[in-house]
Amino acid sequence: MKSSIDLSRHISLQIGALKLYGIWFYIPYQMKNVRFWICVLTRIVLGICVFVIPTGSQSVYVIRLILSGDAEIQEVAGIINLVLTELLVSLRLLDLSLRRDRLSQLSDQLNSTEFQFQMTAQKKILEKAVKLSRGLFWWLIFSSHSDVLVHVVVVPALHNFQTLPLKMDLIVLDVNKESYFNYLCAYQILYKPMMLTTFVAVQTLPWAAMSCAISQLDVLIYNFENIKYLVKANAAERQCNQDEAFKEVFKRCVLHHCAITRFVDTIQATFGGQLSATLLLSTVILGTTAVQIFSIESPLKNLTEVGWVLAYLSIFICNLFVDCYFGNTITTKSSYISNVVFACPWTELPTSLKRNLIIFIAKTQRSLVITAAKLVPVSLETFTKVMNWTYKGFAVMNQMKN
What we know:
Blueprint: H1 9-20, H2 34-68, H3 73-98, H4 100-110, H5 120-158, H6 178-225, H7 227-238, H8 242-294, H9 303-342, H10 351-364, E1 371-372, E2 376-377, H11 380-401
């Protein structure tokens, strides 16, 4: 049975964004084709100009600034935030490119027959999840681009572009020299949209996959909660008795659960490394951002800068929260399945079906868990711990400032 809902729409925006900038992991040409090597060359140039030069030059600048002894903690914290953010994007993109076969497997599983349904209620659950995945993508695109627009364009414009929007040290070039300044300023404004779009794509891909897994768990729970109706409809369709109909419906539910388990395992294999890097670097970024906020002198006179930093902090907290919320929801809903299966009308079933039902209940008692580095569960409890670590890091850095 085919559903009218295309579940690949969960990740279509992210893939489209990567294709738009020419950094999608697959090249649709043979190696003998000239266009193949043009694509390779384009990716090398984009990689150097967008992911290497900005991060490297900002790292050199902050190192030299610290060694000079004239560094202000506000400026250092701000540059470290941007360096870590861009480094996080680069690492996640590299990790995803190395796991592109897993990503292809994930995409294929989205369109598996076990994930297709025809009932209106089931379709509504799946469609709602698709809208959520796409809505999160557009929300993060809008919020991140708006935030960086303020930092890279609005704030420098208020100071008549007397300095570069982003602090860089290119070593071989004097960035403050008039002959280079305008070009570097334009370069910084132009490379940021690609960096941000890549960030949004790699950030929301796990969200989309986990949202799909949650919707499939919701459908499975719905099927067990309404199994009497499904059995009656199946018996009428196949013109068989209730036991045979129950066996068929139960078999579909078991296959569906197995497909969900495989899908969650693929999510783990595809995004586990990225989630680990996000948890680690986000802790540092949140801490240094908090220090940056409290280091701003005369906040009332620098409302634009304060607003940008607060928005930046809010975006990262929300990103981390969504990761942990989706992971926690998958665990919670998967652990609930054994309860809803036990609530099925099984007392009048034949012994063989009862035995199968008990085996399935035992299997579903093992919850599905998304982990970072196969050690730390991606859950709301982990989010609370990360925020606690962030506060402790901020307290230490703030004490050093004082």
